Predict the structure.
Amino acid sequence: MNPKEEKVKIITEEFIENDEDANVGKRKKNSKVQRQPRKKQPPTTGPDKMMLEESHLGNQQELVQDEPQTRLLSVTARRGPRSLPPIPSASRTGFAEFSMRERMREKLQAARSKAESALLQEIPTPRPQRLRSPTVKELETEFGTESGKEVGSTQQEDDTQSYARVKFHVSARKIKSKPQVPPGFPSAEEAYNFFTFTFDPEPEEAEEKPKHGDGTHQEEEEGEEEPPTEEGANRMDEEELLHGKDAEDFLLGLDHTADEFLAVRPAHYESVHVRLQREKEMLFIPSRLTVPTYKKLPENVQPRFLEDEGLYIGERPEVARTNQNIMENRLLTQESGRRWFGDDGRILALPNPIKPFPSRPPVFMQEQSIKAELETLYKKAVKYVHRSQHMIGSGDPAGNFQLDIDISGLIFTHHPCFSREHVLAAKLAQLYDQYLARHQRNKAKFLTDKLQALRNAVQTGLNPEKPHQSLDTIQKTINEYKSEIRQTRKLRDAEQERDRTLLKTIIKVWKEMKSLREFQRFTNTPLKLVLRKEKVDQKTDEEAYEAEIQAEISELLEEHTEEYEQKMEEYRTSYQQWKAWKKAQRAKKKKKKQATEEHPEEETEEPYPEEDPVKPSPPEPTDRAAVEQQVRERAAQSRRRPGEPTLLPELSLAGSVTPNDQCPRAEVWRREDVKRRSVYLKVLFNNKEVSRTVSRQLGTDFRVHFGQIFNLQIFNWPESLTLQVYETVGHSSPTLLAEVFLPIPETTIVTGRAPIEEVEFSSNQHVTLDHEGVGSGVPFSFEADGSNQLILMTSGKVSHSVAWAIGENGIPLIPPLSQQNIGFRSALKRADAISSIGTSGVTDMKKLAKWAAESKLDPNDPNNAPLMQLISVATSGESYVPDFFRLEQLQQEFNFVSDEELNRSKRFRLLHLRSQQVPEFRNYKQIPVYDREIMEKVFQDYEKRLRDRNVIETKDHIDTHRAVVAKYLQQVRESVINRFLIAKQHFLLADLVVEEEVPNISILGLNLFKLAEQKRPLRPRRKGRKKVTAQNLSDGDIRLLVNIIRAYDLPVRKPTASKFQQPSRSSRTFREKHAASPDTRSPTHSADYPLGQVLVRPFVEVSFQRTICHTTTAEGPNPSWNEELELPFRAPNGDYSTASLQSVKDVVFINIFDEVLYDVLEDDRERGNGIHTRIERHWLGCVKIPFSTIYFQARIDGTFKIDIPPVLLGYSKEQNMIIERDFDSVRSLSEGSYITLFITIEPQLVPGESVREKFDSQEDEKLLQATEKFQAECALKFPKRQCLATVIDISGKTVFITRYLKPLNPPQELLNIYPNNPQATAELVARYVSLIPFLPDTVSFAGLCDLWSTSDQFLDLLAGDEEEHAVLLCNYFLFLGKKAWLVMGNAIPEGPTAYVLTWEKSHYLIWNPCSGNFYGQFDTFCPLKNVGCLIGPDNIWFNIQQYDSPLRINFDVTKHKLWKSFFSRSLPYPGLSSVQPEELIYQNTDKAAAAELQDRIEKILKEKIMDWRPRHLTRWNRYCTSTLRHFLPLLESSQGEDIEDDHRAELLKQLGDYRFSGFPLHMPYSEVKPLIDAVYSTGVHNIDVPNVEFALAVYIHPYPKNVLSVWIYVASLIRNR
Amino acid sequence: MAEVHVIGQIMGATGFSESSLFCKWGVHTGAAWKLLSGIREGQTQVDTPQVGDMAYWSHPIDLHFATKGLQGWPRLHLQVWSQDSFGRCQLAGYGFCHVPSSPGTHQLACHTWRPLGSWREQLARAFVGGGPQLLHGDTIYSGADRYRLHTAAGGTVHLEIGLLLRHFDRYGVEC
């Protein structure tokens, strides 16, 4: 809004207030408007446009004048002259303007007249005035102006004057705003006019103005039109004329009181007749009468009914008849209306689109039914039971299901106790049943009826009543009928014959039975057959019979004639042929004759063709008499003779049975036998007995009534349902007669709807009885001479019904079809019966298709569409039944990438595997952002592992048994680990919240007390190390510290000269051999050492994870190194989590070597100048400590026995030590070399905690409570001592520990070796046990728990840890009659472990089950360091003595003050059964396999040694190897003791000039890898003397149960010059 | 092969009439989505607000998805439970909300509801605790015919979720 406008607005407001002002405003505006054309001058306005504007204007005026009053014409007429004022001289309007105005005026005039004439035309009849306004409107529309708006405005004007005024203001404002006013001031003239002039009111204009808002052009036009009036107003001559009126008009326009604006009119009414008449002209009302068909169809066309022709046309939508008629009539009047009609003369229509059911389900009340998925369940506020939350495999079944089995009874059709009469009776009953069944079906009657019907059909078909059908089809159908008649007749005849024979047999059997009863003079069965005769009307019957025969004859004749005709046809053709041939023949003959006349010689050759066609004989016409004869014969045979009464047999049980006292003895016995028998049924569900019926006595009629219903609550889908029939005779045990398999009911069969069915059974048992009973399975005869024998088997019928139960809410308790697809199918089933075809019982698609074809389903019927589709899908070969529905439609279409591409992404795969905690990727730290940065080889290992998972690798394991065991172990491991992973997630509050204990007063006091303590700065104290949790560790953070302190009793070198000694090879006894050993030593041991070196220069090499460190060399057999070696530790895959650390399988090898210096100088002369020595190292022995032990123990501190090979060539034990020793017999048992070590991990790691998950158990609850109590009490007293009462078996169940102990037989082979020496046998047994490979549970089960396998499992698995070894050994000892206990305690280096304690006659022996060694109770070198508890086969004793070292405790468990026993007087031993097997069965190991394995191992080891020496040539000394191979079995038989000297002597004898170093290694066999490691750790291959030769021999000694003892002899030989 | 990281936390809940609250939550996605790492569902601790009305859980959510399509954008479904003084748990509300689809940090308020049940059940709930629960938890986020369910409004669960998207632009999805 510019300021000008603002001003104008103010002015216009004033204008409203008084007329003068209004006029001023008007003037001003008009003057402005007036100026407009001058400046713009739009002369180019097209005539049509003008026209438009004009008409507009005209309308305007018309309307305006029309509304207030009806003086339309007069006003315009008056207006005409007014708009034609003389042009004033002062006017600046040009001629052009004037002429234009002229033109417009003319046009206006023309338009007006035209409108008037149109009006006149339109309304020829006199009409009420009121009607005019609509017509005017119409007129306007004809002119193409916007009518609605203007009409609206006029009406409004009519309604409220005030509105018009407002409108006026608005339009005035608009007009003012629009013209382009030059910026600045009004012109002088304007200004003058404004102030001096008195303006005429311009009511007309005011009324016109509202319309001007339509466009600027209009305004301009208006402006052009206006000036004359203003000009006129200027001049006073015209003013007089107009002034008064205009002023009046203007006033009226503003004043409501003016009467002219209102008119009272009568209500507008149009008479009905007029209206109807008018409507008749305009409207067409179609008739409601039915349109005759001929009208709807093209001329001369018969309506055609598709449905009659068999085409499916669908159901038409229901439309009322009248509506249809109306529609048809209407269509017919339309152009080309006929195309709307179909061939049948009805309107074309699609099938009814309305579904028979509402598509939107009705809204139910809330209480009534809520959809299943919306169902809510009121749940009580209940505390969570945590335990059940984490149960495995608690896949809750959707509910329980119930199968109702109703067993109503049992009938024997044959039983051994049947008498002959019973046999017959059973037969009779059976026949009668058959008869009844046949009678009920009455097939003969049915077929007869059918025959009749067919005949009728043929009759009617022959009648030429329907001319429109072609003759062909009739003939065809008749032929079809006839063939069917033939078939039916045949069938009927057969049926009738069967009926008759059946009847005859029944009568025959009955007769036999009667004769039998007479013969034996008693009756056993109440059966009685009554034949009822039904009289028939002889005459009608005969007539019917005759008619039937006649009909048949005629048919047969017809048939025959047909046949005859056919044959005649054939005959004719063949005859023609024959004739032709004959003719030809004759012609030939003629020719020949002529020829023979010429050449008579050739006559002899008569060319007779072979296929001389015989003259066909005409077929014989059928003889009616013969046919009749035939028919009558057959009828006589199979049919009842006419007039013969129909026989109806009736079997009743009305007969009386002869009482016992009138029977012969045998029969009485039989009856008594029957009475003694009773029968019951067992119900087996999925091969498990679920219930059984009561035992019922067998009745005399061999029927048993049970009438029991069994409700089987089931969880699994039933696979089989079996009834077992058991029979008991007297008090003997029941015998199984037969099994009856019941079919599982269809899911549709529910209780109440299931019919009682009979299932037959039979048994193949042979029973011979010594009384009248015929027995079963044995031949018997009815004849006196024993001919015509019968063999009958026990058989019978069980009547039962099986059905699904119905739950209380009416839902059948049927399990879903299979466990996998519970959801969809059942839902689908509910949804649509047909769509469920593919899912449930109806699976035979071919049958379905056949049925569909036979029942002539209309394939076009949409109702059948799903069925048809299914059939077409199923029968087209692809077994793709779309029984799914797509959940996410259009997913495929909108996918970014395909599935394959997504799966191919290496980054995603890596991320996924990492989050799945797959071992290979568990500790993958950062995953590259781009695929291209990920190497393909990252996955290689993983993929390989996946591939190999199911392949038993025989490469690593060599023998298959172990491979299988390894696989099995892997599976057990996985399942156990899964179990623990679940258990691990079950946290207690203490696991999550660590609460610092608030110091109580005593601790505070103690601390205060400590302050006052004396300071002793010189007293060293061990400080606790800080423990490190595993998460924040990385490679290189953890080091293994091995502190090697000293060693004792190392073997010393032996002079090579000792070859002359021949020690006595006396066999020593067990007790003697240790004591005797010193005597064999040579006193001249230190005579000559090479180069005068000391006895031995040992050093220690520690290898761990292929890192090797070694100490400096010390001297002497008791060296002291006191060195700390530091070895880095790397966790597998960089995973430092507890679980991963626990499963580290690496072993710390501590090898002791002797460093030997050899002079390599060739020439003695150079000795003065230089030293040329070669350092060789000779392996002396090793100590192996598994990392897991170190990890769990945190530190290992102690003296360990060095594992020294039994034969160490060139070395012997230092004698002085032995001499110094105290010769205590027990003490000497622990002879050997020892090393003192301290091993720890820096920083200290927190060992994983064992899981306190409680396992389910089959133990008595009381016992479990007692164990808990016992353990708690023990832990309270001695928290550090191990107390074990229950253990977990391999299936994850808690088992009481004493159940593991039970005498078990060791292999007989071992017992036979030393039959008289129990001690030796014990040693042998211990050795056998130690040969079973050791596999710690902590490794296999990731340190989570200890699983105890029973001894047979252990022997099968051939792997176990200390517990299994100890249990087996203890069981063997118990078998050998020793008093033996399991000792639970701590040992070094194992940590918590199990040993075996035995009571020898005077002392206790402690056995290490894994090494086979034994120690006396007071042996200081016994690895068992403390004892927690003793476990016997029937009790547990906890050590409550002050000390727990075996040296210091008393093993007498009868002393209650020293040993707390589990079972005591208050809780007596309940006699727990053992979990161990009754007896262990040992298979002998295949010797050949062992030999093969031996060869393979030798080959592998040789290859390995060559691999380890890549830069040197490896020569093998065959001669030495064979010697060694020969020697190894000896070692095995002597268990590696005391043959060293013999062996040495022998070797020296054979390989005289070799310097020889080597040793046999002995190991239990588990895999090849440990063997290779062991050989590697000895370092034999490290010799790099150029002319070195090697020898390697392997010997495997097989023990029963695949326990293999492996000996490996490695040696290096250097030739002495 | 676009990726979505959902990192955030379930801050807590307000407006519940019960006091000791905890929340079970889960993330549901369509078939096109693949969880690369993270845990799909979980449960918070029980929080008893001492000051103020809001129960704070501050329960972390950290999920990494790969997707091959936009359909089935992840949505969170929540169940708020209350624990009474006897340690019994009862349902206080179900709720669900979509994980936002634009990257950045979002503060979400998820309003919850619980089934009302019949008047008898309501009465029982008022006096002995417990209450009607949905038999099928997926009704929470699958909007089947929930119109038949009569529910009462529960409180609001507040979530703070940060979203990282990757490679969506490659497939013509601007974000």
Summary: Chain A touches chain B at residues 363-364, 366-367, 370-384, 887-888, 890-891, 894-899, 901-902, 905, 908, 911-912, 914-915 (CB under 8 Å). Residues 538-598 of chain A form the longest helix (61 residues). Chain A is about 40% helix and 15% strand. The mean pLDDT of chain A is 70.
